[in-house]
Design goal:
Elements: E1 4-7, H1 12-28, E2 32-38, H2 44-58, E3 67-73, H3 76-87, E4 91-96, H4 106-109, H5 111-117, E5 122-126, E6 137-142, H6 152-162, E7 165-172, H7 177-196, E8 201-207, H8 212-222, E9 227-231, H9 246-253, E10 258-261
Parallel strand pairs: 1-2, 1-4, 2-3, 4-5, 6-7, 6-9, 7-8, 9-10
Antiparallel strand pairs: 5-10
Length: 271
């Protein structure tokens, strides 16, 4: 179906996620599937009535696309992943609550599990993000792992959609010349790829030997990023320095929207 899935739980964070999804879907000419995952004892009739009321309130924003919904029951992350698979969705969008992000609503609590379960890219965004700002700057961190480049095609599609500038961040996680050479080579390959698709880009290399997450977020702040694109699995050589893995840390700490991509699910061509 090539639609976009958006997780919804009546929180302000998920309502903002719907608004953002509408903006993206209008640009991609994609339909939207809103997914509400209920508990066994929830009043489904009341849920349907409220969803339909809210959908009617945003209907004027739809530009030739459809906003449909489905109510599922079970574990949130599993149900969102199943819906994405059934619909052959382009992406899943979820909202999280405030700067705490993971404590007050089920979407927030399940964001990381959704990312690890989802067969498609997942865009997570906090409710206090400035949704009225254009998506001008996209950060793509690149390390020495083979998979690091696989996020580039989807990120390129997003950049072309919004006319964004891509900021390539070469992350040196070691003093090893071989490791640094790998990073340099991967960055140069991505630069050529972005040139091919006529995407404006800038490049910077930084020493990330202490903490990948902190280094990435400091750079994102520096360039006033509107989106950070990461893989769900990142460089693991510095596990002793990290609290949990890179993707999980980014979701907890980033005030910027995070687009997370599973390496095994991404092809090699930009759409």
């Amino acid at each position: 179906m090539n639609n976009i899935i958006v997780g919804f739980d009546f929180s302000s964070g998920s309502a903002n996620a719907v608004d953002l999804t509408i903006d993206i879907a209008n640009r991609w000419h994609s339909d939207i599937r809103l997914v509400y995952v209920k508990s066994a004892n929830d009043d489904e009739a009341a849920i349907r009535a409220e969803i339909e009321r809210r959908n009617a309130g945003v209907a004027h924003l739809l530009k030739g696309i459809k906003l449909e919904y489905v109510i599922r029951e079970g574990k949130v992350s599993e149900q969102l992943a199943r819906q994405a698979l059934e619909d052959q969705a382009l992406m899943v969008v979820v909202g999280t609550h405030g700067m705490s992000g993971f404590e007050t609503n089920w979407i927030g609590k399940n964001t990381y599990k959704t990312i690890t379960d989802s067969p498609v890219p997942v865009l997570s965004v906090r409710e206090d993000f400035n949704f009225h700002k254009d998506l001008e700057n996209i950060v793509i961190p690149l390390d020495s792992t083979t998979d690091t480049r696989q996020k580039v095609p989807f990120a390129t599609r997003v950049a072309k959609t919004f006319g964004s500038t891509v900021h390539l961040l070469g992350l040196y996680t070691s003093e090893s010349k071989d490791i640094r050479s790998l990073v340099n080579g991967y960055v140069e390959q991505v630069e050529k790829y972005l040139d091919k698709y006529e995407v404006e880009h800038k490049t910077e290399y930084v020493d990330a030997s202490k903490n990948l997450t902190v280094t990435t977020l400091e750079y994102a702040d520096k360039v006033n990023a509107d989106l950070i694109v990461i893989m769900t699995e990142q460089e693991k050589a510095l596990t002793s320095w990290l609290i949990g893995n890179y993707a999980q840390q980014m979701l907890h700490l980033s005030k910027h929207p995070i687009l997370s991509i599973r390496p095994e699910e991404i092809g090699t061509q930009s759409r």
